[in-house]
Amino acid sequence: MQTPAMSTSMAATPTTTRAVAPAPAAKSPAPRQYCNHLLPSATSHRRRRGSVVARSAKKRNPWLDPFDDGPDEEFDYQGMFAGGKQEEDPRPPEDPANPYGFLRFPQGYNPELDSLASKVRGDVRRACCVVSGGVYENVLFFPVVQMLKDRYPGVLIDVVTSARGKQVYEMCKNVRYATVYDPDDDWPEPAEYTHQLGILKNRYYDLILSTRLAGIGHALFLFMSSSRDKVGYVYPNVNSVGAGLFLNEMFKAPTTNLSDGGYHMYTEMLEWIGRPAKNVPRQPTPPLRVSISKKLRAYVEGKYSRAGVEKGKYVVVHGIASDSVASMKSRGDDDCLLPLEHWAQIAKEISSDDKGLKPLFVIPHEKHREEIEEEVGEDTNILFLTTPGQLTCLINDSAGVVATNTAAVQLANARDKPCVALFSSAEKAKLFLPYVEDKGSCTVIASATGKLIDIDIEAVKKAVKDFEPAPSFALA
User: Domain 121-273: which topology?
Assistant: First the structure.
């Protein structure tokens, strides 16, 4: 009974083997079978490649950071914000009915919301003024600051200028911050450059004004401040290429030296700020005015009292030839300092009268004290001042001012004090004192040869005789 069954199973086995096994003709040659046995398959290659990448990612490269010892076992990597960004503030709801996609901002961004009416009107809440030049240029910038205050009531005005220019803004009550940064430096330190740029970005200005002639470099500096409106002067030559792309409004300077414009060097900027708008008439250009504090006035009064003069009984002498950067001369007039020999003759004429007036020499550096004592006399009254604010207080308490084309001339006219202004030419006098015809207290004496050293000293002596001591008031 078992024999047929066994034969049946044995007969079925070869048949099954032939059906499953491939035909002999379809088999590859022996060498190809040997190569296929050695080469990995595609699946095994991908698996092995992934394992190699995983192992190499975990391996530390000592050349990247030799002090990296791996993850810190004591550090809590599962603390706050371990899963990603922190939760954002609730954003305003979207308006699906608005066809313009109102408030459709990407996730994770919460923009600053400003008044739409303020944007349409162009209101300015915070303004920054980047002022180029020294003391003279910063003093003449005061009308621009005042026009900003008149045009946008309540505006907060900041100033960025050099260390010499910062001292000017102790006389301007409309300035909130005066930051020291020299915009005229063509190669600033990278750390100082990025630090100042961060200050401008963090204050969120609506308007930034610049009086430095801009090329593409300075225009990019203004652009990176993230201010809404960027306004400034550009070079009148090929150096201005590309600068206008980063400015909302630009003014082309007539020359490469903006100070050549004299008193009206910022006319284009004043016209743009005071431009008429809807229901807003043109803003009139304010005159140059400076203010002084009671504390500063008391400090300067103590200084000139120790120098040997009394209030209202001295004449300020300013404009001595010096190589000091604190001479307060304008960049638009290089020939504006008179040698000490000429000042000695003028000083003797002031003190020779019976009015009791004394000349008070204002020096920009202490090294000139001995020179004046040798030339004029040891009993000469000399005062060393460090800031334009102190000079303004000194002029305000004086009987008058005799000076060359320095900041003292503009400060004397701003405080309505009698002044004798000495210029190298009549053209320079008209350029820097165009309003002198409206001021009877200012006398202009210009050199006939175009050089200040050739000025008529006799005419100056005659003009200084008109100074009168300031009246003093005593309370009963």
Answer: Rossmann fold (3.40.50)
